[in-house]
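TL;DR need structure tokens for one chain.
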Amino acid sequence: MALETCGSCGEQVPFADTVHVLVHTKGEDGVIDSYICRDCYEEYLQPVVESPGSSDEGASVDSASR
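>> reply
TL;DR here they are.
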């Protein structure tokens, strides 16, 4: 089983339990291309990328995919 290091908390998690995050900062940092664990995604990014009232099935978000 392949492991990936979470770009947020640093934990090693199975690749199947990660979310691919691609953020274009439009600044000197350029593009951030990382994998984060499901827990970090749900705690930090999901509230940002999903609008109120949207569901996982209906959300269409290119910056974070399952």
